[in-house]
């Protein structure tokens, strides 16, 4: 028998204690019992977001929260700046254009760093800009972006808000919503929050709510004013995904027990071990600013990444992610997200080496594992 192992950047593995919570008998979503659970969840989400602002829960994937940000902040014809450096930066562009915004695209080559001075220049040229749409971790390339610096820049523009896609990174890497002056942050349940897909989350600053009060874009299910009206009662305007919220309570408890700071350190250690192992195996990273959430590895020219991913999944039960768009077949992406430990990192590294050997391109897997072990266990207490 094979034991399935997820090293994809979503969905990620779900702890047994969370699964057991979700297996409890269904409860009605308008009962005192569920409202008490929701109240605890709303409070704990503020800790994970590192914010004093309200955090709203939507029964949707992360893209739903991205769309909610656009329709609640903007009006037709509003000017926005979108930083597009991968598949999900492109999604910001597409969403904004779909709703009639005038979009200035700051395009970055996939895998490259973003020069934040370009954002400053763009805002000076277009002071009427209502929103800057950015990404903390570009999942398609495994690239980390300096949203803290972006927050400092956007804060100097009173009529502009910074909206951050932290879907594959919140809870895995530092994201100080209030301290970094991030006006809107969105994330999803199936990443570092260790839940199945189906929930998304969005925080809104007071600056963002000022824009929302004047937004003229059509909205109904994603109208955050509806969610805000019932938040004081820890309620939802529409039927909520009850079992996922029940599971979320447990996953947030686990995060609080470990602490965010320790979780960030653990993600960094697993990511750094993977990066060093990749180099020792004679491979290279795709990103010049790699994220601690996911590592993108460039495959040897003659290796088909799609076949390699399929080989690992069907023969060994190990799931890693392939490349997207023009990177399809050229890279594999290994997640470090959520419910993993040091031995999971070693499994992911060794499985990559084994799959490459079976694909006709042997690498020094043992040396890669040796490098990873130095990182993973050198600073143990």
General description of the model:
It is a single chain. By secondary structure, this protein is of the alpha/beta class. It folds into two domains: 5-10 and 259-377, Aspartate Aminotransferase, domain 1 (Alpha-Beta Complex); 16-257, Aspartate Aminotransferase, domain 2 (3-Layer(aba) Sandwich). Helix content is 43%, strand content 15%. The chain is built from 13 helices and 15 strands. The strands form four sheets. The chain has a seven-stranded mixed sheet with strand order 2-10-9-8-5-3-4, sandwiched between helices. A four-stranded antiparallel sheet has the order 11-12-15-14, with helices on one face. Strands 1-13 form a two-stranded parallel ribbon. Strand 14 and strand 15 (331-335) form a beta hairpin. The longest helix has 21 residues, at 260-280. The relative contact order is 0.16.
Spatial strand order of the main sheet: 2-10-9-8-5-3-4
CATH architecture of the largest domain: 3-Layer(aba) Sandwich
Structural class: alpha/beta
- So what's the overall shape? globular
Please state roughly what percent of the residues sit in beta strands, choosing from under 5%, 5-15%, 15-25%, 25-35%, 35-45% or over 45%: 15-25%
Count of helical regions: 13
**Terminal residue distance:** 35 Å
Provide a quick synopsis of the model.
The chain is an alpha/beta fold and 381 residues long. It is built from 13 helices and 15 strands.
Topology:
Layout: E1 5-6, H1 16-22, H2 32-49, E2 55-58, H3 62-73, E3 79-84, H4 87-98, E4 102-107, H5 116-125, E5 131-135, E6 137-138, E7 143-144, H6 147-155, E8 161-165, E9 184-188, E10 200-204, H7 206-213, H8 224-231, H9 242-258, H10 260-280, E11 284-285, E12 294-298, H11 305-316, E13 318-319, E14 321-322, E15 331-335, H12 342-358, H13 365-377
Parallel strand pairs: 1-13, 3-4, 3-5, 5-8, 8-9
Antiparallel strand pairs: 2-10, 6-7, 9-10, 11-12, 12-15, 14-15
């Amino acid at each position: 028998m094979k034991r399935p192992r997820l090293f994809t950047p979503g969905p990620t593995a779900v702890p047994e204690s969370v699964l057991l919570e979700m297996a409890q008998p269904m409860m009605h979503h308008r009962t005192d019992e569920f409202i008490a659970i929701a109240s605890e969840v709303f409070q704990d989400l503020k800790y994970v977001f590192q914010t004093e602002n309200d955090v709203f829960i939507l029964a949707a994937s992360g893209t739903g929260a991205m769309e909610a940000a656009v329709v609640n902040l903007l009006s037709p014809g509003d000017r926005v700046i979108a930083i597009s450096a991968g598949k999900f930066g492109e999604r910001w562009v597409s969403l904004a254009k779909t709703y009639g915004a005038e979009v200035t695209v700051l395009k970055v080559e996939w895998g490259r760093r973003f020069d934040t001075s370009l954002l400053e220049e763009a805002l000076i040229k277009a002071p009427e800009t209502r929103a800057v749409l950015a990404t903390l971790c570009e999942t398609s390339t495994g690239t980390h972006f300096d949203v803290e610096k972006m927050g400092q820049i956007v804060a100097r523009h009173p009529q502009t808000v910074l909206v951050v896609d932290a879907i594959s990174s919140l809870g895995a890497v530092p994201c100080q919503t209030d301290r970094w002056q991030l006006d809107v942050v969105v994330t999803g349940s199936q990443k570092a929050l260790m839940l199945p897909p189906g929930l998304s989350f969005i925080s809104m600053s007071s600056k963002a709510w000022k824009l929302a009060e004047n937004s003229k874009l059509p909205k109904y299910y994603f109208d955050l004013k509806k969610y805000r009206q019932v938040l004081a009662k820890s309620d939802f305007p529409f039927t909520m995904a009850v079992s996922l919220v029940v599971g979320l309570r447990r996953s947030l408890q686990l995060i609080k027990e470990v602490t965010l700071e320790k979780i960030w350190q653990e993600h960094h250690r697993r990511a750094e071990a993977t990066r060093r192992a990749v180099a020792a195996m004679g491979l290279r990273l795709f990103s010049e600013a790699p994220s601690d959430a996911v590592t993108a590895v460039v495959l040897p020219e003659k290796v088909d990444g799609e076949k390699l991913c399929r080989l690992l999944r069907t023969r060994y039960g190990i799931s890693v992610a392939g490349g997207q768009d023009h990177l399809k077949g050229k890279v594999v992406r290994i997640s470090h997200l959520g419910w993993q430990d040091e031995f999971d990192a070693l499994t992911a590294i060794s499985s990559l080496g084994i799959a490459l050997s079976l694909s006709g391109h042997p690498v020094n897997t043992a040396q890669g594992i040796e490098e990873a072990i130095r990182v993973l266990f050198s600073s143990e207490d």
